[in-house]
């Protein structure tokens, strides 16, 4: 039974190796631009998420009560919502016809079909995942160590950077890795509000429509190479940790 489960889960890997027509295939026009869009936009999104998501994760990990429960519910709603529905709602909120979207566009920032829109979609896709995973990592840090650091005169910021962050760094690194995968792999939200410039998921979908499944394997291989190694390495490293 275990072998059957492993064989079932490894089927996509066999499809990647043997399912595509690799002979004479190359990247289609627009593929390299899609790779650059995903890597650059995803990198900016992950940096923003780390800055704004870590304080929220710390708040949820250290603050019990009804207010934090409401805050956690608001974090979970975008994560649980179907991404296509979330994309439609974001288009209604940030689109040029909406008051918020119109106000932001007057500042010279378009939040539909632009690099900024791609970053916005990636943040909405990955921020809740990061907050929940980072909260779990921060919860494992004993509060006793933080109390001792405060008793020695450390400020809240010093306690976080000198005590909490080093003790939770492995879990936070795994949270960032999951965040990276979500940011680069998001399709539903990006399809609605950031169809252009296309990232790798949307470009793959476009190439499949134009060229067929057998012709998109070069871009598919780059996509998997950009998303899989980091979280896979972190997961295996965490497993080896005593």
Describe this structure in a few short sentences.
The protein is built from 13 helices and no strands.
Listing every helix as H and every strand as E from the N terminus to the C terminus, the arrangement reads HHHHHHHHHHHHH
**How many separate structural domains?**
1
- CATH-scheme architecture: Orthogonal Bundle
- Sheet with the most strands? none
Multimerization status: single chain
* Rg for CA atoms: 21 Å
Helix content: over 70%
CATH homology-level superfamily: MetI-like
CATH topology: MetI-like fold
The general outline is globular
Strand content: under 5%
The separation of the N and C termini measures 28 Å
The number of distinct β-strands equals 0
Poorly predicted regions are none
Structural class computed from helices and strand pairing: mainly alpha
Summed over residues and divided by their number, the pLDDT gives a mean of: 89
Summarize the structure in words:
The model has no long low-confidence stretch (mean pLDDT 89). The protein has 242 residues and is mostly helical. The chain has helices spanning 2-9, 11-19, 31-62, 66-80, 83-94, 99-105, 115-139, 143-151, 156-185, 188-193, 200-211, 217-227, 229-240. The protein contains 13 helices and no strands. The protein has a single domain, classed as MetI-like (MetI-like fold, Orthogonal Bundle).
């Amino acid at each position: 039974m275990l072998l059957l489960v492993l064989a079932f889960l490894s089927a996509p890997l066999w499809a990647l190796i043997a399912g595509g027509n690799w002979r004479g295939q190359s990247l289609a026009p627009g593929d390299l631009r899609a790779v650059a869009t995903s890597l650059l936009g995803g990198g900016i999104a992950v940096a923003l998420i780390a800055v704004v998501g870590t304080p929220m994760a710390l708040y949820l990990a250290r603050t019990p009560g009804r207010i934090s429960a409401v805050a956690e519910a608001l974090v979970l709603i975008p994560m649980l919502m179907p991404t296509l529905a979330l994309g439609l709602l974001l288009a209604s909120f940030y689109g040029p016809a909406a008051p918020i979207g119109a106000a932001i566009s007057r500042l010279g920032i378009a939040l539909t079909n632009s690099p900024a829109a791609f970053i916005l979609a990636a943040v909405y896709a990955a921020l809740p995942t990061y907050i929940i995973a980072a909260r779990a990592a921060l919860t494992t840090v004993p509060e006793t160590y933080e109390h001792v650091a405060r008793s020695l005169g450390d400020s809240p910021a010093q306690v976080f950077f000198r005590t909490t962050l080093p003790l939770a760094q492995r879990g936070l690194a795994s949270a960032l890795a999951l965040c990276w995968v979500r940011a680069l792999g998001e399709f539903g939200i990006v399809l609605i509000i950031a169809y252009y410039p296309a990232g790798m998921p949307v470009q793959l979908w476009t190439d499949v429509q134009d060229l067929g499944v057998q012709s998109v394997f070069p871009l598919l291989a780059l996509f998997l190479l950009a998303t899989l190694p980091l979280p896979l390495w972190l997961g295996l490293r965490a497993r080896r940790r005593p």
